Each structure stands twice: as C-alpha cells, then as structure tokens.
Amino acid sequence: MIHLNGMALLPQRGERLPRCGDGAALAVLVVCVVRFPGRWSVAGCWTAAALLLVLAFPLHLLFEVPAAMAGRPSDWRDLGARLALAIGGLLFAGLANARTPRRGPREAGYQLVPGWARRWAYTAVALPVFGWAVPHGLWVLGVPFGIPREQLDDIHRSLSTVTGVAITLVPPLAGLLVLGLTRRWGQQFPRWTPVLRGRPVPRLLAVIPAGVVALALVAYGVLSVVVLVGQVLSGDTPWSQVRDGWAVTATLLVFLGWGVAVGVTTIGYTLATRPTRGSVGIRRDS
C-alpha cells in the first residue's frame, strides 16, 4: 500500500516481495533462455526484467536510502531486498539483450533525435523543477505552499534541513540527465571524459536506465492515484484533506507526467540510434 507521508506518497514497509518459488521460476526462465534461444524466450526475459524492476520500485530506493543514511528509521532488510530486485532486473535485461539477434552495425557519429522527442525531453526537465523542486523548496523555507501549516510543522519535525534540501534537489538534477537522450553527449562521450572521450556511448547504457526510471515513475504515479482515490471513496482520507494539501496531491500527477515524458524521450532515442542493416553512418550536428 501507499500512504501520505509528509512530502510525498511512499510505499509502506512489508509489501510482498518475491519468495523462493518466484526465484525458482526465474531460474527456470534463465535455463530456457540459454538452452532454447528464440523470440519467445527473449520476450520472457524482458518481461522478467520489467517485473523485477517494477517490484524493486527504484523511486522508493532513491528517496529512502538517502533518508536512512541521514538517520531516519528505515527497514534495511526491505531496502536490501529491493536493491537485489533492481540488480536482478538489470541482469535479466542484459541477458535478454545478449540473446537478441543483432540487426547490424550502429550508424557512426551523432544521430539526430526526432523533434518530438526533444520537446518531450524539455518537458521531462521542467516537470521536476516546477512540480517538485519549487513546492518542496518553499516547504524547506517554511512556506506552507499548498499544504496546511500543521503538515508543514510535521515535515520540519521529521526531516532535517539537509535531508529536506537533498529530497528537493535530487529529482530536478536527475531530470537534467534526460537531455542526454537528445544531445551528442548521450551518444558520444564528451572530450573531457578520460579514456572514453569521443567513443560511442553503449546504447543500452542510456536506454535501460531511462526505461527503468520511466517505468518506475509511471507505476508510482498510477498506483498512488489509484490508492488515493480509493482512500477518498472509502472515507479513510477526507476530501477536505486532499483539498487542503493539493500541492502534495499534485505531486502524483507530476510523477506520472514525468514518467511519460522520460518514456517518450527514450523511445525517440531508441529509434534514432537503433542499428540498421548495411547502413552508412551520417554525422549530423545538433
């Protein structure tokens, strides 16, 4: 379940995580992928990767790990299990990619990303700034923007200033990385990069993290909205509380829109950089 927790909606501890039977099923899937390569086994591998990454809830780790390191009481077993799920998801994604038939060489040089993808990238950068950093920054400064004064006081009692600043700055700074999906440095390592300067950026190094983040953000937004609506309809959360704390409620839509924007941008990057058969690279400037 998900509950209203000061500055955001976060998953509660004790959610069901995969057990031994699930691990056995994943092991069988690995054997099938290795012994019986083909389209269906690769599709199953990608599905397992997506499920593990969704269950890991990377967004939960993004906020809870820094908060735990700052001294906030946390369930380290739960965090460790989620980290293991995330690693497992990445390993399954790597296995699926390794077993996928190659289409051909990737075009050399910078490949221009479609204009619609660039516009979505700008949206992905703007949403965490205006929809997250601005209200959270005001809360850190003591301004009850979109929330009752009592809730703001609870936030200041439960979170230190350092933790509040970190929570405020992490999403917009992470959002800037989305620009890499539409810029040259997302396809070629910059000149100032030691050893790797000028070399092509491995395609999956950009696609997999961006896809995971997009999936996590959309899942977080959808699940949070569904749970909140259910709480309002059941009477557990009064409508007046939602109205008085509209800035917190709006954060759910920010995450949902942010995930969609990152996902669409990732699709544009994927289309621009996909390998083709017998193609000759064309170097383009942004």
From TrEMBL:
Keywords: Membrane, Transmembrane, Transmembrane helix
Ranges annotated as spanning the membrane: 43-63, 83-100, 120-141, 161-182, 203-233, 245-272
Protein name per its UniProtKB record: Uncharacterized protein
Organism: Asanoa hainanensis
